[in-house]
């Protein structure tokens, strides 16, 4: 385990950029959502549902996809890579807003 003094010496500071965090924040929920749909074989469910019932289900799948961003955010805060953590949070916002809009 690293001490706080050792954490600041890790080579993570060169990756401390907003755009990397935004890319991670945008890609990770999409990948996790796709894996979730594939794992539980929800393609058949989407084909049989009407359009008015599909919105809330997609909203919940988007929320499931956001959870790994929270874990990544915790890791980046622990490593004190602040710009990267803020980028992940900003990248997750479109998914959060879309999931709330779909569930309403």
Question: If you had to describe this structure to a student in words, what would you say it looks like?
Answer:
The chain has 104 residues and is mainly α. 79% of the residues lie in helices and 0% in strands. It has helices spanning 4-7, 18-39, 43-48, 51-78, 82-103. Helix 2 packs across helix 4 and helix 2 (18-39) packs across helix 5 (82-103). The relative contact order is 0.21. The model has no long low-confidence stretch (mean pLDDT 83).
Keywords:
single chain; 104 residues; mainly alpha; 5 helices; 79% helix; 0% strand; elongated
Task: Spell out the blueprint of helices and strands.
Blueprint: H1 4-7, H2 18-39, H3 43-48, H4 51-78, H5 82-103
Helix pairs in contact: 2-4, 2-5, 4-5
Into which percentage range does the β-strand content fall?
Answer: under 5%
Shape: elongated
DSSP E strands, number: 0
| N-to-C SSE string, H for helix and E for strand | HHHHH
Alpha-beta content class: mainly alpha
Helical content (DSSP H or I, runs of 4+): over 70%
Poorly predicted ranges (pLDDT <50, ≥5 residues)?
none
**Rounded average pLDDT:** 83
Radius of gyration: 17 Å
């Amino acid at each position: 385990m690293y001490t706080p003094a050792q954490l600041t010496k890790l080579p993570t500071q060169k990756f401390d950029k907003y755009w990397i965090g935004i890319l991670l924040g945008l890609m990770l929920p999409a990948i996790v959502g796709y894996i979730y749909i594939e794992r539980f074989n929800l393609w058949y469910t989407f084909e049989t549902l009407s359009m008015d019932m599909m919105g809330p289900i997609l909203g919940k799948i988007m929320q499931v996809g956001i959870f790994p961003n929270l874990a990544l955010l915790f890791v980046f805060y622990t490593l004190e890579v602040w710009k990267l953590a803020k980028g992940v949070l900003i990248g997750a916002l479109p998914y959060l807003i879309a999931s709330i809009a779909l569930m309403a």
